[in-house]
Amino acid sequence: MKLAKAALLFTLASVAAWAQVNMGAQKPEAGLPFNMTTVSTFELPWRLAFLPDGRMLITEKVGPIWLVSQQGKKMPLGNTPAVYWQGQNGMLGVYVSPRYATDQSIYLTYVEPGDYGGGLALARAKLNATATTVRLENYEVLWRQMPKGRGGQEGAQIAFSPDGQYLFLSVGDRQRFSPAQDPNQPEGKILRLTLDGKPAPGNPNFGKTGAATIPLIDPPRDTEAAKTAKVVSNYAFPAENLTPAETWTSGHRTPYGLAFSPTGELWEVEHGPLGGDELNLIEQGKNYGWPLVSYGQNYNGVPIANHDTRPDLTKPVLYWVPVIAPGNLMFYRGTQTFPQWNGSGFIGGMGTMTLNRIIFDGHGGAKTAERWDVGHRIRDVEQGPDGSLWMLEDANPGALIHVTPK
Q1: 197, 201, 202, 207: CA torsion to nearest 10
Q2: Which domains does the chain have, with CATH numbers?
Q3: Is 113 exposed, middle or buried (CB count within 10 Å of its CB: 0-12, 13-18, 19+)?
Q4: N or C: which terminus of the chain carries fewer CB neighbours within 10 A?
């Protein structure tokens, strides 16, 4: 019993010591402990995923998906879907199924064309690759964001649960503000789905009807989109509306990074407005506050209430003012190539052109380690089969960069 109490006190002390820290002013390291080699270039690359044979799937926001060797040889995928490409919209994520060994399936997230814009789509297909061709077969859309329309900040990141039974999908607020607090809209949420795209049992609203009333202290005010946002003293929705059974958490702005740590915790990074990028520990049913609170400010100068004013809303563990503009989040696993990084998280900083290492304590706490100035807007960083890192540059042309030890 004494040991259990001591462990609990240590955990609570660790979380308290590491929580709500502004890391925006962190200075880059004096040098780099690794080499960077440009292997190939792409037109606005977004995400990369490794296949078991060591080749990569790389998406370009403008539409194509490529099968790429580690030497940079590229082969275009056939039968890819049409995308709505504008601003932050387009072909976004590519992810290898946790059951790839038996089904050869991959998952895609992209903005599907529609009336007056587009909407986020989650799709699955079988990857059929030969020595000379590669294409998608048995293509099916599993989930669609409705209604479609204009606006960026789709999120579109997937994280598979450690048991391989479920997937978590991040959906941004699309610069529409109020939907992030509307329980009947998917925007500004993290969804928990089955591998077939259905609501997962155990979700907070699984099998329920009705809706909640979310108190609004400060109406959403930001760019031109705010002029058409619903501005009321309370959000209230008719009881006959179905409460979306997919929702796991709410109150997110631009959730571009989503990943499970080696200890099984789900972590997320998102862009703040003018300041206030966030690293969040994602826990079932919690509300992370957007657009009611932020450590940043609106672009038009109108203040946003601080997280400290709303103890009912969940604070980030780390935040950045000024921003780093996070591209993604991944966890390093392994004791080869970079053994000193085993268990660390990595965040690509697009605004700061940095690679940022994060240390996690396994009990809901996190703190930053090094920030390396790499001279590129890092949209994605992933671990290769041999333990080296691969980064995608957010640019046109954008580099595929191989990171190896010095």
Answers
A1: 100
A2: 18-405 (2.120.10.30)
A3: middle
A4: N
d(CA 126, CA 99): 11
Write the single-letter amino acid at 209. T
CA distance 331 to 308: 29
Check: CB of residue 171 under 8 Å from CB of residue 244: no
User: How many other C-beta atoms lie within 10 A of the C-beta of residue 247?
Assistant: 23
The answer to whether residues 304 and 296 touch, using CB atoms and an 8 Å cutoff, is yes
Among 42, 326, 305, smallest CA distance to 157 is for 326
Q: Which residues of 135-164 are buried (b: 16+ CB within 10 A; e: fewer)?
A: bbeeeeebbbbeebeebebbbbbbbbbeee
Q: Could you give the CA distance from residue 248 to residue 283 in angstroms, rounded to a whole number?
A: 8
Output the tens digit of pLDDT for each of the chain's 406 residues.
444 444 444 344 344 444 578 999 999 999 999 999 999 999 999 999 999 999 999 999 999 999 999 999 999 999 999 999 999 999 999 999 999 999 999 999 999 999 889 999 999 999 999 888 999 999 999 999 988 988 889 999 999 999 999 999 999 999 998 999 999 999 999 999 999 999 999 999 998 765 443 444 333 333 333 333 332 223 333 333 446 999 999 999 999 999 999 999 999 999 999 999 999 999 999 999 999 999 999 999 889 999 999 999 999 999 999 999 999 999 999 998 999 999 999 999 999 999 999 999 999 999 999 999 999 999 999 999 999 999 999 999 999 999 999 9
